[in-house]
Amino acid sequence: MGELPYKIQELKLRRIEELNNKLRNELARERMTASNACLSIIDYTSTHKDYAVPEVWGYPMVGENPYNNTMRKNNFARSHEETSACCTIM
User: pTM for the complete prediction?
Assistant: First the structure.
């Protein structure tokens, strides 16, 4: 009868050790401060064209669609022609 409280204490200790290990792993993970994250976003948006922000990049030329991905359309058309099946699963 005296062994049951010992097993319960052992289980509690094991759970606490697992929690400590999880917390140590989380603490060891690389962190980024909010200011560095903001600078990273600003750097990305200032070097990659995004016509959704016309104040920075201006408007696209008339008749030009900068988001039109013709390469993807051509690959899809080619892959669709090569298959003889009725369906294509991507």
Answer: 0.39
